[in-house]
Amino acid sequence: MAREPTFATDALKPDQIAAYLARIELPTSLAASASSLELLSEVYQAHHENVPKDTTIMHVPKGAWKGASEPIVLQSGLYSMPLRTAAFERIVNHHAGGYCWANNPTFAALLRGLGFRVSEVAAKVFKNWANLDSTDTVVKDKWGTITHIVLVVDWTGSGERYVLDVGFGGGGCPIPIPLRDGATVAGLNPFEAWTIRHEPLPHDPADTPPIDIIPGWTTYRRTALPAGSNFESFPNAPDTDTPSTWAHQYHFLLASITVRDIGLYDYYSQAHPLAAFTGFFLVTRLLPGTGGARRSVMFAEHMVKSDGVRRARVHTTGGNAGEGPRDIEYVEMETGPMREFLEREFGFAFE
Prior knowledge:
The chain is of the alpha+beta class.
């Protein structure tokens, strides 16, 4: 009996590649293209614009979308995030998505099928990246546990490796970042950029120092609005002269994790009482042709207003119009109205 590889080597078959490319609205003829940065960039951005980061599978059992509308309960109702074939089915055939432990491994399998080499590495996420004050130079205790997965990609003759991530959600970079200290890439609009630094895990100097530490890689996002500012406080849309801040996003070591590691980290991320998405409902993706604007629907119990009605907030941020938020609306946290919304706005195909 053939032994399952210790490290992931999953590669989609030709018919699966064709279906995946069609799902992200790219011509299936790209499957015959030679591996290149241009191909990688095109497929990567298309995935961001068509496949959402999606936690619905945790909170709503498959059968609950049918029949009478029922309240959506935030829970860890999933004890094995669909990987490989199951994740492919959910992403490609059901036009849904997943969080990082489904989206990134499935995207990695697509890239391998297209001739790329992919290493899967684990990351710690900076929990306060979206709210870091632009004048605050102290990180404090804001780094989480290892709950994220990132891809490092190259190919024969590439001459360089690239960091990709289709599972970060809000603020994720849709441009391959060269794995090189100080490498910086512009976003899809003039207001944001990303950089990567080779450094030890940043931490508050007042913390107890670790005994052993080796340098890893930290990604940072530049936003043209100081974090914590309101977009309305600027009379005009921000441009490259608008004050900005670089905020940490995540930190990883360049060490491939095994298939069993992926299962362990995934289990902690969605089944443990402290799991990041146990109490958070999120579906989010980039909008094509908008310069990287993002459409998101999100809910947590603390968002319930004084009327006591549980409604998810829907809004658009970023893109050519600046950080936002804008186009705000609300959807009741029940399976009926939420199913209708996800079908209309995100193209979900419920069975």
